[in-house]
Amino acid sequence: MKKILLSLLTIALVSTVAFGATKAYFSDSETSTGNSFTAGTLDLTADGKEGTAVMHITRSNLYPSKPWSLSWGGEWILRNVGTVPGVFSVTVQNIQNGTTSCNGPKVAALAAASLPACVPSSSTGGRLGSLMYGRWMENPELSAPSIGWTGSAVFNPFNTMGGTIAGLPLNSGQAVSAYLDLEWDTHAGTLDNTAQGDTLSFDVVFNLDQVHP
User: Where in the sequence is the domain holding 87, given as residue range(s)?
Assistant: First the structure.
């Protein structure tokens, strides 16, 4: 009798499992296909070029002029050619002041100002960077719409311009004129003579960083 009951119980359990495995309810399914992700781009050009091929400025035969009347600077057109908005900035670095000659007026002016004697060098001893004043600004004559960048607030001796000047956001396709206004104004006495024959060299780095929400 016990064996019969156990057999009936086993049959009942198997039947229950089988029923649970085979019964079904209403159902429906949908499939999303062709999902795709593409990264945006952040790309800055200066005068339509990239890398070290960017335009560089070369000026020669510089001389003092009336205050704020003659600029020896240059202009670069910065454009965001990518698809992602970015904030631009400009950095002056590797400033070097050299001297190519030691003529009479220069030697006398250095002595009168109690400055070190003239020693020709391609990268040291020059005075030009301390007598020329510079600032960054947006050229209002740029054909592209102005974005209102004020650049550097005031003129400073170029030797102190090393560092980064922050810019404003540039949307995709937007451009700004980064104009380096560089002037050599007159100084009292013979101080300007201390820079005769001097050279000034520097690098400018333009940067574009993603705008963070």
Answer: 44-55+67-210
